[in-house]
Amino acid sequence: MLDAPLTRNLSHSSFRFRCFPELQDHRWILALLFFLCFLSVLLGNSALVYVIRRVARLRSPMYVLMSLLCVVDVLLASTILPNMLLNLLFDWSHISLAGCLIQMFSTYFLSSLESTLLLVMALDRYVAICKPLRYTDIMSSSAFLKLLVFALLRSVSIMSALVVLAGSLWFCGSHVIQHCYCDHMALVRLACVSTQRNQAAGLAVIVCFVGVDIPVIFFSYVKIVKVVVRAAAASEERLKALHTCSTHLMVIVCFYLVGTIAFLSGSLNIPIATGINNLMGVAYILIPATVNPIIYGVRTKEIRRGLQRMFKLRERKITSLKVSSGKRQTLRTSGLEPTSLALQT
Predict the structure, then answer these.
(1) CA dihedral 59, 233, 296, 117 (to 10 degrees)
(2) Beta bridge partners of 177
(3) Is 22 exposed, middle or buried, given 0-12, 13-18 or 19+ CB atoms closer than 10 A?
(4) Long-range contacts of 25-28 (CB under 8 A, 24+ apart)
(5) What is residue 107's predicted lDDT score, i.e. its pLDDT?
(6) 256, 112 contact by CB (below 8 A)
(7) Which residues contact 63 (CB under 8 A, 6 or more apart)?
(8) Residue 66 and residue 219: Cα distance in Å, rounded?
(9) What rounded mean pLDDT belongs to the chain?
(10) From 71's CA, which of 9, 217, 331, 333 has a CA 20 to 30 Å away?
(11) If you ran DSSP here, which 8-state letter would residue 14 be given?
């Protein structure tokens, strides 16, 4: 009888995740699917970064931004997927409050950083296509550095405030987080004090990122499509340009729309089933991270050419090694060593 009042006067220091409770009987299948997604994220993004670093022609700001986007995608997936896999495979679902807050900050910081990178990439393409003569002046090294510093400062300041507010709450009810990772509202719902400030902070995050980034990105792509359609004489080139821009926008809309619904479902009390909310919370991270290397990498002409050069160079090295080893073998079978042949000549 004395335990209940005591627990209500103490704030929880550890929590337990409840990831896809409706599919617990099929958690091995879920673990396999998420592992394959994680593997594709690691391989696809690492391969794209490797190609951009190795090919000397890919040194413009656009490809630097692609590399940073790949790194952010890998870090973002690594923040949540290993814990999810351990939870699904071995039921290792416990996490401390400090660990939960660190995971929350890492997840939202990297997500906001990805949003800013998508914004900067759209602006870079807008300047390159709509104002090509001024591209080197506008996208100079100093301007590029300022954009990156702005991205870091905006993400760190806003997400730090969000996490500090969540960490200051008093948790004395349930210690079960109805999510696969430390989601903001999934944790805030467990508080036994007023959470109005946290809900307001969640709305402010959406306004600062989705409310600012999406209109600018959309405006940039609309301008790009207009310029390309006017400039392209052949209908084939127009279709290619429209197809590329529409594919980019589809991935961006998936990232923002699904992420916004998942983030705001708790703040606005949107009636979404726990499993669907969990799926959206994972999908807005995994889908762009899986598709970005294809959209921004394989479908980009310069990167395809870089891949072809790398493969051709590797083939030449392999054939030259085979030829040189074949010559040495021929000389040895004829009784002559390469060194002795060189001396004779």
Answers:
(1) 70
(2) 17
(3) exposed
(4) 27/88, 27/89, 28/88, 28/89
(5) 92
(6) no
(7) 52, 302, 303
(8) 20
(9) 78
(10) 217
(11) E
For the cut 70, the answer to whether the pLDDT of residue 312 exceeds it is no
Number of helical H runs and strand E runs in the chain: 12, 3
Contact 62, 124 (CB under 8 A): yes
Res 338: pLDDT? 46
CA distance 222 to 129: 12
User: To which residue do tokens 């009390």 refer?
Assistant: 269
Closest CA to 112 of 151, 66, 73, 161: 151
CA nearest 182: which of 71, 258, 33, 79? Answer: 79
Structural element, H or E, at residue 207: helix 196-231
Sole residue written with tokens 């290993």: 82
How far apart, in whole angstroms, are the C-alpha atoms of residue 273 and residue 136?
Answer: 50
Cα–Cα dist 315/321, whole Å: 10
**Strand residues in 79-207 grouped as ranges (E):** 94-96, 176-177
On the question of pLDDT at 307 being above 70, the answer is: no
Residue, of 4 and 94, whose pLDDT is higher: 94
Structure tokens belonging to residue 302: 């310069």
Residue identified by tokens 């100079």 is 140
- Give me the residues paired with residue 17 across strands: 177
At 95, is the secondary structure helix, strand, or coil?
A: strand
What's the average model confidence in pLDDT over 238-265? Answer: 70
